[in-house]
Amino acid sequence: MAKRATKKGGSRPVRLSAGRLRAGWPGPAGTRVRLARAQDTDAADALLETAGVRIIPALRTAIEEGTAAAALLDGLDGTKNTFHEAVARQMAGHTMAEAMSSVSLTLVAADDQDRPVGTLSVTAPGVIIEKAMDHGHSTVEAMTLGVAIGKVHGLAVAEEARGQGLAGTLMKRACQVYDQLGYFMLYGSYETDRDLEAFYTQCGYTVHAPGEGFPLQAFGLPFGINAGPDQCVFTRWAPRR
């Protein structure tokens, strides 16, 4: 598993804050890794398109309106209970898409001119939530999975910026956020012809064999994450607390 960042000279995890996530951290090759802003959406979307995905439309709207990751940000400045309360407010007063955007994290690695040259989108596990409702769970019950599981929706780095560690840095920062907020698992998938096993393994994920799904009994669900014969699922359980 990926190790949490620790304070110098100690073993305690460094706590992130909403302000730090917005301002970002110095990244490789003079970049800054930070929360995506409204002006980043076109560039981030174009980058993700090179990986075969796009920013989810409702999430793009939320980024442009400044409401994306709202529950995550509240939680970083409070506690896990603060986070859960923020998600409950989102579910009570907003559409499902808006509530899901509040727990979705879009990061960019911006160059010295503040232009995104890398981006990572982690979203609520929409397919899992829909399947849970299909299996008889209420909307609220299914949506609570969004505070336990995150989906790596897309990760991309501009061709000229590859080979400098940007992708790994983006993944590391996302894991820090979700670990601090008490998530149990992050997962995603990729096409086998992209040969990404070594990368995701280095990031602390277990890469499953092509076509091999992953059961979700640990979450009380009678189904799993499916994979086509040309897909690999990767999963990461949070470090033990």
Account of the protein in words:
- The chain is built from ten helices and ten strands.
- Helix 4 runs antiparallel to helix 5 (80-93).
- The protein is α+β, with helices and mostly antiparallel strands and 241 residues long.
- The chain has helices spanning 18-23, 41-49, 57-65, 70-76, 80-93, 96-101, 126-134, 139-143, 166-180, 197-202; strands at 25-26, 32-35, 105-110, 116-123, 149-157, 185-191, 206-207, 214-215, 224-225, 231-237.
Feature tags:
10 strands; eight-stranded mixed beta sheet; 241 residues; 36% helix
Helix and strand arrangement:
Layout: H1 18-23, E1 25-26, E2 32-35, H2 41-49, H3 57-65, H4 70-76, H5 80-93, H6 96-101, E3 105-110, E4 116-123, H7 126-134, H8 139-143, E5 149-157, H9 166-180, E6 185-191, H10 197-202, E7 206-207, E8 214-215, E9 224-225, E10 231-237
Parallel strand pairs: 5-6
Antiparallel strand pairs: 1-2, 2-3, 3-4, 4-5, 6-10, 7-10, 8-9
Helix pairs in contact: 4-5
Number of strands: 10
C-alpha-based Rg, rounded: 17 Å
Average per-residue pLDDT, rounded, comes to 93
The percent range for strand residues is 15-25%
Sheet having the most strands: 8 strands, mixed
**What is the terminal separation in angstroms?**
13 Å
Strand order of the largest sheet: 1-2-3-4-5-6-10-7
Report helical residue fraction.
25-40%
- Compressed to H and E, one letter per element, the order equals HEEHHHHHEEHHEHEHEEEE
Please report the number of helical segments. 10
Show unreliable segments.
1-11
Which term fits the overall shape?
globular
Class of secondary structure makeup: alpha+beta
